[in-house]
Structures are given as structure tokens and as C-alpha cells.
Design the sequence.
């Protein structure tokens, strides 16, 4: 079963995730506007009220992602893994994926907790790179370091997805051991996965330009047609921003830039939803296949785990729990 077939058969999970993400976006917008209106009437906080509402929206989004979107994502990865390993998938892929996640709910829950150990290894590397960049090149060096750190965060997201696939593949061992094995495999076969990263960032850049660019244009045209009706709000946001020394606030001080900024934010959010639901799973199938194929015949010994123990106290703790 090739990657394209697996992707198509597991697309039902992507459609469901996109639906929930769309609901989440509506919640963020609605709560942002509500926060702006309420705080304006009571405390006249202006733009601060908008951000308060936005923060509440993101909290709601986090809750939804945790209990719904993550479950759908886990089911999709479980079915991708089954397609790669067994070379076949059931007729009702979504129902089977949900069934597997329910059967291994505790294991999946433990896995998500265990991913903090994996993230800490890469985050530590990212902090070192950013710090070195700032010490060597000042603001420019810090910016370069931050960019590299962003790349590392992207790698982390794929690593965690691959590790979850490995957890489903290694169903005969506990989540802690399977997760530890997954992290070790990623480090041991770094060159193999580095080849995938070029495709990951290339496709990601193209999708951002096409999808985010299109929606930024749509949002800007909508805001432009309503410019007269919204001019008062633009001016009020600019006036509130003028009282702040924050870099982002300084951008909003000019009423002309306000619709541009919100168009960019809206386009980026929509891109994030569409990319994570449709583009990333397409790339993930190939990365996951290489990941599992490289690790199926690998013998992971204690020395391999110990090499990561030295890099992350959290990983060392997870390694100890694995042997408990």
C-alpha cells in the first residue's frame, strides 16, 4: 500500500479535524469581539479587551484540541501505521481508528505526557542555539538563532507524531518504553530524517504562500469593503496601541496597518488549520514510513537510552519509569 493510498484512506480524520478547528476559530473570533465589547462597556480597556477575549478563545481552543483534535490525530496516525506495517486498511478506517484509540486510551494519554521528555531534549538544543546566536551576533544573531529554533520546533512536531506511530507499532510494550525507543531512533537515524526535512519545509513554504496568501487577500478585501463601518474601531485600536511601547502595538498605531495585521493573523490561522489537517498528514505518511522502516530491525540497548539521559533530565526520568 503506497503513501498516497494510505493518505486518501485516512483523509476522513483530516476532514473531522478541520471541522473542529473551524469551530475553534469561530470561538476565538467570537470571544475576541465579545471581550472587546464587554471590556469597552465596563472598563473601556480598548485593545486590551480584544486581547483578553482572544486569550479566552485560545484557552477554549486548547481544551478542544486536547480532547477532540488530539484523539482524531491519534486515530489517523494509528491507521497510517497500520497501513504501513500491515500493507492494508479496513473499510471503515475512521471507526477502526477510534476503536484502537479507545482500546489504548491510557497508553495514548501516557504518551502525550511522555512527549514532554522528548520535547525537552530538542528545546534544550534550541535554547543553546538561540543563546549562542545572541552572544555572538547580537540581535541579528539572536534572530538567526530563533529561526533555527523554529525549525527545531517543526522537527519536534514530526518527531512526536512518528513516536506516536511507534507506540501503536510497538503495542506489546508500554508507552514509556515505546516513546523512549522512538526518540532514540530519531537521533540514531538523523541523516535519514534530515532528507525528509527538506521536503517538509519546502511543502510547508509553498502551502503558506498559496493558502495563507489567498486567505490574507480575502480577509483584507472584506475589511477593505467595510472600511467606513470599521474606521472607528481601527482608530480606537490605534489610539489604544499608541499608549503602549510594545513592538506589536507600535505597528497598530497607524489605522491603515490595522486591517493588514488582522488579515495576516486571519490568513495565518486558516493556513495553520488547513496545513495541519491536509498538507502535514500527506508529508507525515512518507516520514512515518521511513521512520518505522529504519527502526523495525533496530536493536535498542541501554547504551542508546543512556546517550539521551545525559541530554535531558526529563528523558532520564522517563527512562527510569520505563524500567520500573
Sequence:
Amino acid at each position: 500500500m503506497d503513501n498516497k493510498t494510505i493518505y486518501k484512506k485516512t483523509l476522513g480524520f483530516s476532514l473531522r479535524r478541520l471541522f473542529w478547528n473551524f469551530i475553534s476559530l469561530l470561538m476565538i473570533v467570537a470571544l475576541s469581539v465579545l471581550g472587546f465589547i464587554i471590556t469597552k462597556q465596563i472598563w473601556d480597556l480598548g485593545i486590551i479587551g480584544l486581547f483578553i477575549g482572544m486569550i479566552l478563545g485560545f484557552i477554549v481552543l486548547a481544551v478542544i484540541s486536547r480532547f477532540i483534535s488530539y484523539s482524531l490525530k491519534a486515530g489517523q496516525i494509528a491507521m497510517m501505521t497500520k497501513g504501513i506495517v500491515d500493507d492494508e486498511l479496513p473499510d471503515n478506517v475512521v471507526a477502526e481508528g477510534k476503536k484502537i484509540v479507545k482500546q489504548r486510551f491510557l497508553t495514548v494519554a501516557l504518551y502525550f505526557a511522555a512527549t514532554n521528555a522528548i520535547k525537552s531534549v530538542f528545546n534544550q538544543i534550541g535554547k543553546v542555539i538561540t543563546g549562542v546566536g545572541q552572544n555572538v551576533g547580537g540581535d541579528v544573531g539572536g534572530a538567526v538563532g530563533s529561526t533555527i529554533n523554529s525549525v527545531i520546533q517543526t522537527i519536534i512536531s514530526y518527531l512526536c507524531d512518528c513516536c506516536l506511530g511507534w507506540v501503536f507499532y510497538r503495542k506489546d510494550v508500554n508507552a514509556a518504553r515505546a516513546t523512549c525507543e522512538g526518540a532514540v531512533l530519531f537521533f540514531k537515524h538523523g541523516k535519514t530524517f534530515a532528507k525528509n526535512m527538506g521536503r517538509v519545509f519546502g511543502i510547508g513554504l509553498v502551502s503558506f504562500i498559496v493558502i495563507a496568501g489567498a486567505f490574507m487577500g480575502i480577509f483584507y478585501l472584506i475589511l477593505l469593503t467595510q472600511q467606513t463601518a470599521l474606521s472607528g474601531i481601527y482608530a480606537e485600536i490605534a489610539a489604544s496601541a499608541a499608549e503602549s511601547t510594545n513592538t506589536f502595538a507600535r505597528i497598530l498605531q497607524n489605522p491603515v496597518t490595522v486591517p493588514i495585521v488582522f488579515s495576516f493573523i486571519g490568513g495565518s490561522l486558516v493556513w495553520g488549520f488547513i496545513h495541519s489537517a491536509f498538507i502535514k498528514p500527506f508529508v507525515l505518511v512518507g516520514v512515518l514510513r521511513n521512520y518505522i522502516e529504519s527502526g523495525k530491525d533496530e536493536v535498542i540497548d541501554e547504551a542508546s537510552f543512556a546517550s539521551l539521559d545525559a541530554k535531558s533530565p526529563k528523558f532520564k526520568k522517563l527512562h527510569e519509569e520505563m524500567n520500573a
Summary: Residues 99 and 167 are 16 Å apart (CA to CA). The mean pLDDT is 77. Residues 3-322 form one domain. The longest helix spans residues 105-169.
